[in-house]
Amino acid sequence: MRPFEFQRAASESEAIAAGAAGARYLAGGTTLVDLMREEVETPEKIVDINRLPLNYIRATDEAIVIGALARMSEVAANQDVRRLQPLIPETLTEGASPQLRNVASIGGNLLQRVRCPYFRMLDAPCNKRVPGSGCSAIDGLNAGHAILGTSEHCVATHPSDLAVSLVALGAMLSLKGPRGERTIPVEELFRLPESTPHLEHTLEPGELIVEVHIPNGPYARKARYLKVRDRSSYEFALVSAAAALHVENGIIKEVRIAAGGVGTRPWRMNAVEQALVGKPAARASYEIAAAVSTEETRPLSHNGFKVKLLPATIVRALEMAGDVA
């Protein structure tokens, strides 16, 4: 690890000023510290933001509001979250080991870096680490890589399980930065790689994620997360699906679906949703709709299995959501 300057921010304005000047924010540090040890990331200045008053969970009639510094374990155990947004604690539990959940923050989870092995290999070309150097995964070992939203410059999947479920639930982010406050959908936080894969999110220099707002829609209580992986614990998704259903008299009135492990960002399944509205909440409907999820896929040499696994995962997630009492 290379030497760096360290600062503890006493206020949001102090943190924002330091971030705008190029400092990196530190919350749980479960990604950043690892990357610094491996010298994949070499920031000159770190700003600890853990003293900021952003560790809270509030339930309102309209939404669950979570401060960006709330720890994953705290959110997963919160009774209001478990009652109103059961998809969130299920996803958090699937997303990391207990030790990591005790440390990792909600805001940091959304901004974690990719787990492509070539990103961490300093002797391998990687456009995320060194823009313009190339993408080793395209012709390399790519079984865990993306089949949606890829470019000739990057095929890495976005790693956050939580982001998938927040996209499915239509969650919003409150941000605060040098130019003031703004609110964006979680879905708009993440960039496609295109020709600039080193730019992974839409935050401006110095912007902080302050809160996550998760609306209490009628679909929110009838939702499930399914994660398919190589092993049953502490592993990233090969394919995952978050499905939320609003069903009346056996007919789907509203449905929201997002997938992970397949896209360069959490992937909203808009076409699948459109194919389901007004249809019976039954496996036959799910299978017909899920078939359209693969229309824009671009498999690589080792991850073609994801093309078949994606619709099957969506179907099973919908079945699981439909079984929620």
UniProtKB/TrEMBL annotation:
<dbReference type="Pfam" id="PF00941">
    <property type="entry name" value="FAD_binding_5"/>
</dbReference>
<dbReference type="InterPro" id="IPR016167">
    <property type="entry name" value="FAD-bd_PCMH_sub1"/>
</dbReference>
<dbReference type="InterPro" id="IPR016169">
    <property type="entry name" value="FAD-bd_PCMH_sub2"/>
</dbReference>
<dbReference type="GO" id="GO:0071949">
    <property type="term" value="F:FAD binding"/>
</dbReference>
<dbReference type="GO" id="GO:0004855">
    <property type="term" value="F:xanthine oxidase activity"/>
</dbReference>
<dbReference type="InterPro" id="IPR051312">
    <property type="entry name" value="Diverse_Substr_Oxidored"/>
</dbReference>
<keyword id="KW-0614">Plasmid</keyword>
<protein>
    <submittedName>
        <fullName>Probable oxidoreductase</fullName>
        <ecNumber>1.17.3.2</ecNumber>
    </submittedName>
</protein>
<dbReference type="Pfam" id="PF03450">
    <property type="entry name" value="CO_deh_flav_C"/>
</dbReference>
<dbReference type="InterPro" id="IPR002346">
    <property type="entry name" value="Mopterin_DH_FAD-bd"/>
</dbReference>
<dbReference type="InterPro" id="IPR036683">
    <property type="entry name" value="CO_DH_flav_C_dom_sf"/>
</dbReference>
<keyword id="KW-0560">Oxidoreductase</keyword>
<keyword id="KW-0285">Flavoprotein</keyword>
<dbReference type="InterPro" id="IPR016166">
    <property type="entry name" value="FAD-bd_PCMH"/>
</dbReference>
<dbReference type="InterPro" id="IPR005107">
    <property type="entry name" value="CO_DH_flav_C"/>
</dbReference>
<dbReference type="InterPro" id="IPR036318">
    <property type="entry name" value="FAD-bd_PCMH-like_sf"/>
</dbReference>
<feature type="domain" description="FAD-binding PCMH-type">
    <location>
        <begin position="1"/>
        <end position="219"/>
    </location>
</feature>
<keyword id="KW-0274">FAD</keyword>
